[in-house]
Amino acid sequence: MLLDCDEQLFMAYKQKSEKGAENILATWLEAESNLQEDPKILGTSLSPKLFLVNEETAKNIAFSTARKYWGHVSTEMQMYFDKYGLDSKFVNERLSAFFYTQKGKDTFFEQLFAQHTIDLERLIWLVFGKRMQMAMPVNELQSIILYKFQDEYLVHMMYKEHASFWHWLFTKKSLFTAYPQTIRAIHISL
Predict the structure, then answer these.
(1) Are 98 and 104 a contacting pair, CB within 8 Å?
(2) For site-directed labelling of 67, which of 44, 83, 111, 185 has its Cα 20 to 30 A away?
(3) What is the distance in angstroms between the CA of the first residue and the CA of the last residue of the chain?
(4) Which tens digit of pLDDT belongs to each residue from 38-76?
(5) What number of other Cβ atoms are within 10 A of residue 12's Cβ?
(6) CA–CA dist 92, 99 (Å, integer)
(7) What is the reported pTM?
(8) 52-53 and 152-159 strand pairing
(9) Cβ distance 140 to 162 under 8 Å?
(10) For residues 108 and 63, is the Cβ–Cβ distance under 8 A?
(11) How far apart are the C-alpha atoms of 48 and 155, rounded to whole Å?
(12) H or E segment at 19?
């Protein structure tokens, strides 16, 4: 699950690379009424109104995304678990117990709020109590990031496909929220 602004930027990036994403940002910038309070970062500004959400929305986005990508055993993941002697029925039962119980949900958020990020390796550790290096297939979710800024949350996903875009977008979001009054023009090229 992506925020609308993330999805629009990603689609523009896929079609026209960084220039396409910058064009979308420029369009949004024109629509902003108070341009003086919206500093430019990485070329074009990104308003926090687009990506900061309340706690409930942040939790829903983070958990539903984790469940979508990590809540079942793919063929690639099962080959990995086979190395540890864990059959697919057992693995799926444990993942279901984690993703469809309040205890699993609470554990997920405790870890996410404490560490600000969760990836498949950490999730497997939470579910099975074992640290395992997970080699994820391409186009899969790498991590979920969550930061609190006053009463709002920045939730962001990092994917393997077009990884440079997801890092670019996270940098844009996090720099703006961390230093809204001090950053005026920083250009970072990927």
Answers:
(1) yes
(2) 83
(3) 25
(4) 434 445 555 666 678 899 999 999 999 999 999 988 887
(5) 20
(6) 10
(7) 0.71
(8) antiparallel
(9) no
(10) yes
(11) 12
(12) helix 4-31
